[in-house]
Design goal:
With about 120 residues, this protein is mainly β. The chain contains no helices and ten strands. The chain has strands at about 5, 10, 20-25, 35-40, 45-50, 60, 70-75, 80-85, 90-95, 115. The strands form two sheets. A six-stranded mixed sheet has the order 2-10-9-4-5-6, with no helix packed on it. A four-stranded antiparallel sheet has the order 1-3-8-7, with no helix packed on it. A hairpin with a 4-residue loop joins strand 7 (about 70-75) and strand 8. The chain is globular, with a radius of gyration of 13 Å.
Length: about 120
């Protein structure tokens, strides 16, 4: 059974930082591209970032480029999203996903973690 569990969300002020983590099981993690997808209240899902299987290639949505960093640890079956300079519009539920870049829906998305940016 494929399982993905994101954590690390919370309430942060604009300009602050958070680090999201996602633990994965049920498939050969080290061979798959992983992504983060978010969904803001009342909006559709938005692809945020992807990282290839060995971590050597990353991609970012224009809305987060330069502020967010995706990484992974294949020994621990973990994927991370370091979020800096957070903005009000980053408020969303964040999901890790076994999916390719720019995919906004995937059968492998698991439970998300809520990030709220508010003053």
């Amino acid at each position: 059974e494929v399982q993905l569990q994101a954590s690390g969300g919370g309430l942060v002020q604009p300009g602050g930082s958070l680090r999201l983590s996602c633990v994965v099981s049920g498939f050969t993690f080290s061979t798959k591209t992983m992504s983060w997808i978010r969904q803001a209240p009342g909006k559709g899902p938005e692809w945020v970032s992807s990282i290839n299987s060995n971590g050597g290639d990353t991609e970012y949505a224009d809305s987060v480029k330069g502020r967010f960093t995706i990484s992974r640890d294949n020994a621990k079956n973990m994927v991370y999203l370091q979020m800096n300079s957070l903005k009000l519009e980053d408020t969303a539920v964040y999901y890790c996903s076994r999916s390719t870049p720019r995919t906004t829906n995937s059968p492998f998305m698991g439970q998300g973690t809520l990030v709220t940016v508010s003053s």
